[in-house]
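Note to self: keep these together.
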Amino acid sequence: MHITICIQHAVLKPKDKLIASICELPSKSCGDPRKEVSLVMASFYDITIGQQVEFQRVLASAGFTDSHIARIIKEPNLASTMYVAIQLRTIVLSCCGESITVDDRYLTDPWQPKSWFRGYRCQRITAEQHWPSRPLPEAPRVFIPRTSTEHPLGHVPDSFDSLWDMADAPQKDGVSYTKYRGEGVKSDRANLHLAPNKIEFTEPAWLAFDPERGKGERPNRFWGQADCAASEIFSALIQFPEWPLAWFAGSSAPNLSGYQLKYDGNWSGVPCLSRWDDHRQLWLFGSWADGRNVCWSSPSVREC
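Structure:
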């Protein structure tokens, strides 16, 4: 069976083929590989009564008769697969026309991509341009955000200096920014190392990247957490060149809180990024790790 979902309009297509499949093979699950989730789902009867009622309402609004709905409900494998499938949303990205399938049912508000976000295909092309012999793996079929600000990020591990060099400064009003790196941001082991418990990825991977985690909090509050972003933030600059233009306009600029930077002889600093519009510059500089600023965050990353 092939099911195309548009939950925003409560439509399941093609209904006739689905009905025929239900009647002929009632115990089989959906054949669409994007929706093959029954193996990891608990029984359909583990859902609440309210969820079951809502499931029946969606099926009815899609044109299924009471007898078809009853047939579906009696088949746990089919019902659980369909129930999960109708939770998924397919979002078409305005930047490139590419679509992304999202399971955001655990969020309070529907997930929406930021204007600077680019889809899997665009990210894969960018990665191939920089690392032709290190391709990204297959992208997640369904992105499951844990927060409304998480976005998929294609990350290819590389050195601190190489990733910074690959990042392009943004353009605004037809004028290109330049990059500036403070003299205190040195990448040798005597001046820069990973924060405790931070382990960087060694192979190309798709990550869930949350650029707004820890907004307004001290960067060193996140030292000791394995999900604290370090060089992955440079990957975000490479994949999302318009991201810096959102800083200080509702979004925060990032601390690279997965690092510790030697500052005044102590490991009390952290690299961070900023945008200086007066001089059209993208800045990489060092700051105190115990300082707070509502305009900066400590982004997180986790494997999708």
